[in-house]
Amino acid sequence: MPCASVSCNTTSAVRSQARRETVLFLHGSLGNGDGWQRTVAAVQPSYRCLTPDLIGYGASMRWPNGVRFTLAAERLALEPLLACCADTFHLVGYSYGGVVALDLALAHPNRVRTLTLIEPVLFNILCEAGNERAFQQFAHARDDFAAALARGPAEHALRSFLDFWSGHGAWDKLLADVRADMLGAVDKVVLDWEASFAFAPSRQSLEALGSRTLLLRGDRSPPGMLELVDTLHALMPGSTRCVIAGANHLLPMTRPADVTQAIRLHLHAGGERPLL
User: Fold this and answer.
1) CA distance 90 to 101
2) CATH number of 6-123+200-272
3) Domain segments of the chain as ranges
4) Which DSSP category does 2 fall into?
5) pLDDT for 94-152, tens place per residue?
6) Contact present, 103 and 195 (Cβ < 8 Å)
7) pTM of the predicted model, to two decimals?
């Protein structure tokens, strides 16, 4: 799969008319559906695009205190959107939205034409592959974030969170209104961590999605994420892995043109592939 400025290798809200194939875009923690605007602008001439806000973000509902949270809650909130789709649809998920997308794909495997996962936080795949060291990197980051949030102020927790994922100083580079939005949704991040760590799909279920899956990562993301994506690529025969040079975990925001190009090529290839 050719991608300009991207290296690739392969292993063995409603915005247009219903006649077009549907693409469901799922954002990451602390984001919202508006984060996909530049990608949607490039994709929607050919596809019908849905960019919902996940639970606790943007205009979506907040999760009630004291109620157990799992990825199933995200899936159940999203499934009504799919009632207006044709029999099949495309899925794109970034970071936390990547594991939500994968859970949704596993629940509807016969309806998913393509699956694009951008640095999905599927932490348990590292344990499955015996990479305890990388797994513990994420576990420590989760625990450090929860401890910092409990101590307060929340800005300190978010500063360390952004620094872990995107490099030193990432928080300070954000616009004031973006930081304010993140502070308003900070409690949901704890639930995102918990739900992501609890998600452990089987190898067999992942293998079944391999030929339809694009795995996209930067080369300057946390080392554990580089290993996670590469491990997932090896466990999903037929998947395509694309690496965006010079990009970190914030690649949909910092490198939208490259991310969009990779997604568009994958959607086009999936549209030509016979249904399973």
Assistant:
1) 10
2) 3.40.50.1820
3) 6-123+200-272
4) -
5) 999 999 999 999 999 999 999 999 999 999 999 988 999 999 999 999 999 999 999 99
6) no
7) 0.91
